[in-house]
Structures are given as C-alpha cells and as structure tokens.
Fold this protein.
Amino acid sequence: MRPPSGTTRKLLLAFGALVALFAAASVFALGRLSDIHEGTHTLQAASGRVRDALELATAVRDQYAHLAHTIILGNDSHARFHAESRARVEALTRRLWEQARDAEERAWVGDIQESGDALDRLYRETLLPAVVAKDHAAVTAAHGRALELVSVIQARADALARRFDASIGSFEEHVGAVEHTSFQWTLLLLGGATLFAAGVGLYIGNSVARPVARLTEGAARLARGELDTRIPEDEPGEFGGLAAQFNRMTEALRAHQEQLVQHEKLAGIGRLAAGVAHEINNPLGVILGYVRLLQRKAQGPLAEDLKVVEEEAVRCQEIVEGLLDLARPGRVAVERVALREVCDEVVARLQEAARLGSAQVRVEGDAPAWIHPQRVRQVLFNLVKNAAEAAGGTGRVEVRIEGRADGGASVAVSDSGPGVKPEDRPRLFEPFFTTKASGTGLGLAVSQAIAHAHGGRIEADTGPLGGARFTLHLPPAGEGV
C-alpha cells in the first residue's frame, strides 16, 4: 500500500492534531472530575462521621432517659430498653473508632467507650439494685454519677461532631477550587480546539471544495447522458487521481452503453427469430409427417434419400426448438428440489436412450435448491450429454453436487476429454457456436439462458478429470428468481 500523500497527508495531520487537542482536553477534564469525585466521596464520609457522632449523642440521651425512667417508676421495666440503647451506643462507638483519623479523635472515642462502659456497669450493678431495694440514698448517688458520665460522653461526641463538621468545610473549599480551575482550563482547551477546528474547516473548504465541485458537475453531466464528459486531471494529489478514475469510468460506461445497445439489437433479432421459428415449426411438422409416411412405401435408394430428408428436417426442428427456448421469458416458477434426484434421473434417461455410449458417469453429493425442475433438467441433460460425447467411449464423467453456506448450490459436470481450447471459451455460450461437426450451437446458449432465468450462471474451466468442467451455479431462494 502506498503511503498517503498530498491532501490526504495534510488532512490526516490536521485531524490528528484536532483529535489530540480534544483528547488532551478530555483527559484533563476527566482528571479534574476524578478529583471532584474523590472530594465528594470524602465529603460524604465526613458527613457520615458527623451523623454518627450526632446519633451517638442521641443514643446516650435515650440511654439516660431509660435510666431516669427506672428511677421514676421504681422498678426494672425499662431495663430491656436500657440494654437496647446501650447496644446502639456501643455500635456507634465502634463505628466512630474506625472513622477516627488521628490520636486526639481516637482518645475522645476512647473516653466515650470508657464512660459508656462505666455507665452500663453503674446501671446494672448499682442503680438498678438500689431502685429495686428502695435505697434512695444509693439511687441519688448513682444518679449523680450517671449524669457525670453522660456529660463526658456528650462532650466528647459534640467535640467529634465539630471536628468532623470543620473538615467538611475545608473539603468543600477544596472541591470548589478544583471545580473553578477545571472549568477555566476546560473552557480554554475546548475554545482552542474549536478555533483549530474552524481553521481545519477553512482549509478543507479551500483545498477540497473546488475539486469536489468539479466532480459534482461532472457527475451531473453524466446523469444527463453526456457520456463524453471529462474532468481536468491537473489537480494535484488524490483529486487528480480521482478525476482520472472518473474519466476512465465514463469511458467504460460509454463502452458498456454501446454494448447494451448492441445486446438490445440482438434481443430484437432474437424475438424476430422466435416469431419466424414459430411459423417454420408447423411446416416442418408437416414435412416430417409426409416423409415418414413415404418411408413406409419407399425402398432402395429412395428410402435412403427420404432418411436424409428426415434427419435434416429433425435437425431444423431442433434449431427451431432452440430458438424458441432462447425467446422464452426470463423468470421461472421454482420449487424446492433435491438436486441429486434430478441428476440421477437425467443420467438414467441418457443411459436408456443410449446417449452416453460407454462413458462411465458418477454422481456425487447432494443439496436442495429452488429451481424449475423441467428447465434445470434440460440444462443438466445438455451438460452431461456433452461431457459424455467429449469423454469418448472409455472416458469418465463426474457430476458433483455441492451446497453453499448462503443457501445456494452448484452442480459441476467434469469429463476426461480433451477440454475446451482457450480461444473458444469466450464464445461457448453464443448462439450457433459449436465445436462439434453435427452440433446446432444452441445447447449451451439455451442452458445459460435458463441459468440466468434462475438468477444463476454457468461457468466453464478445466476439471479434476483433465477435461472440461461446466459448473451450474444456483442462488439461494428468493435471489434473482
């Protein structure tokens, strides 16, 4: 592959620089977004610590409330609620210990843990027994000690909440600064990229728009049927090459148009020939009838002469049938058929009619196909008969059926004969062209027409047996039929 040059290289460089600039802006923006995300995550964690500290203070107040109710009610009915509050205080204390970031915070959490344990022991071992025993003095003393412990826990929890709340403020400032800086740099990079993109657009307009306009004008003239349209090839780089390709395309299109006109002429001639063939077929039938009637009475040289007349009349009839086959409509009604059955039937009929001689015919493979059985049988009849004639008395003929992954199929008929001369291959499917002394030259032409009617084709090459190979390609269902 040739290295890019001219306009292609310039455009690649320009768009590469543009992509690099946008990529740099994107990477910077993603990095700043990562910082913002990390700061937001830190803020959420700090908010969680504040919430846990405040919940701890609330849980301690609930614990003290149940202690107070125990004193007021004078029984142990709130002992269970006190235990539940105590469990909540312990869970929050452990969570704050895990979230502590320095020695001071861990010391405060340690004070909370120690005071909480003391408060729980005071309740279970001193205050509750004193309440049950109606020992007012002991209850009063225990209540005073409980207030001291609750005050210590509240103070430490409030200190932690203030500390965590202060960290939230600092993180908010950091996140705000990152957002401001990110916005400025992203705006600068994207603005520069936009200006650069505008420059690239101007360059493309100057170096690409004019050649493209020429191509557009040439295409419009070509669409109007001006097949002699040519575009100047003086443009440097790829557009000059594109103009040259366009000119070659228009030349090929002009030649193809001439071929189409020629084919249309041939088609008209074919339709005329079909009409004439239809009119000739009736007199031929009459001639054959009278010749065969006279053959019953004739003897000697006259009988031999009548035999020659019959053979030539039959030959004319075969030519007429070939012309009618060429003139039949292109599209055919199809049905799903096993190709192996069709091939076996064709070989059997040829053997019954002694048209294969001593040639050995082998059929291999199988595949389904959507075909018109009678028309495809006619194609295979011609291909196998021709292969047997080419192979000779001791030759071999191979019929190989293969299915394709796309749902189509192919039937290849190979022989061990001398093959087809390279100079004859381009004309094999032309009407009236034949390499056999007694051939009409219509068999392969009719077969190719039938293949085209199915959306397929027949190809000729050298086969595995050393002779010719004619392959009938059939498309999947719904294509070309």
Summary: The two ends are 40 Å apart (CA to CA). The chain has three domains: 7-205, 238-324, 330-474.
